[in-house]
Amino acid sequence: MFFLSVRQRVVVLTGSGISAESGLQTFRNHGGLWAGERVEDVATPEAFVRQPLHVLNFYNRLRRQLQNTQPNTAHLALKHLESVYDVNIITQNVDDLHERAGSSYVLHLHGELLKARSSVDENYIVDCFSDQTLADTDDNGFLMRPHIVWFGEAVPMIEPAIQLMRAADIVIIIGTSLQVYPAAGLVQYIPPKAEIFLIDPQPYEGLKNVQIIRASAQAGVNSLVSELLRRSEAQSLSSQNGDH
After folding, report:
1. Which helix (H) or strand (E) holds 213?
2. Do 120 and 16 have their domain in common?
3. Cβ partners under 8 Å of residue 4, min gap 6
4. In terms of DSSP bridges, do strands 9-14 and 27-28 run parallel, antiparallel, or are they unpaired?
5. pTM of the entire structure?
6. What gap in Å lies between CA 54 and CA 66, rounded to an integer?
7. What is the pLDDT along the chain (244 residues), one digit of tens a residue?
8. How far apart are CA 222 and CA 216, in angstroms?
9. Same structural domain for residues 164 and 200?
């Protein structure tokens, strides 16, 4: 008798390294700059109170840049992994490149550039594909802001991310310094039995029981996905042969 094997659960944690290879300007800890701006001037609630138009214009530029950017082969390979694995992506990135590559489940820890929300009611969230202005308000007349989790704000999606990580059979960490919390703390919830792969040209060295792939996101992800797909095919063939 032939039994279908249970699909293994792969949880992928992505950071700025995967988006940078599509040409997106990303936040860098070195110097505290994001796309040439000091983070305290564009990525804090205080900055929005002080200079709302300056903050809106900064995200308007990022949004326009994103809309002229395409997913790269790392994004596409992660979609391909869904053919034989149950894949959930947790991303620190605010772009939609995983979605455009076709990934079925993407959890955004730090918000989404293509959405806006009320500056007062955090549950009032709308799609935003064009420039935001000071004339944009919610139904109660309150100013709309980018749907981005700024420094000093809570990360609403961290609990669902923790639950995903706890259920992982395989964890793939791509292009993140593992220095920004609470996202970096997710590694604490990886089950002891899970395989962990870290893909980065300059990987974080503080993790135990990790298979490190010192490569760019595209080279590393394509290589690992090919290997995981070959492994799954071999296990499937072995299972079938054992049932005959």
Report:
1. strand 211-213
2. no
3. none
4. unpaired
5. 0.91
6. 19
7. 344 457 899 999 999 999 999 998 776 555 566 778 888 999 999 999 999 999 999 999 999 999 999 999 999 999 999 999 999 999 999 999 999 999 999 999 999 999 999 999 999 999 999 999 999 999 999 999 999 999 999 999 999 999 999 999 999 999 988 877 888 899 999 999 999 999 999 887 777 889 999 999 999 999 999 999 998 877 766 666 655 4
8. 10
9. yes
> What is the amino acid identity at position 229?
L
Give every CB contact of residue 144 below 8 A, 6+ residues apart in sequence. 116, 117, 118, 119, 126, 128, 132, 136, 137, 138
Q: Please tell me whether residues 20 and 35 are part of one structural domain.
A: no
Are residues 163 and 244 located together in one domain of the fold? yes
Same structural domain, 240 and 197: yes
Catalytic entry in 75, 108, 110, 147: 110
> What is the span of the domain harbouring residue 200?
1-24+71-110+155-244
Paired tokens of 29: 């800890």
| Number of structural domains in the chain | 2
CA dihedral 193, 198, 204, 209 (to 10 degrees): 30
Let me know if 75 is a catalytic residue: no
- Supply the CATH number for residue 182's domain: 3.40.50.1220
Element (H, E) at 33: strand 33-34
For the chain, percent helix, then strand, then coil, each to nearest 5?
35, 20, 40
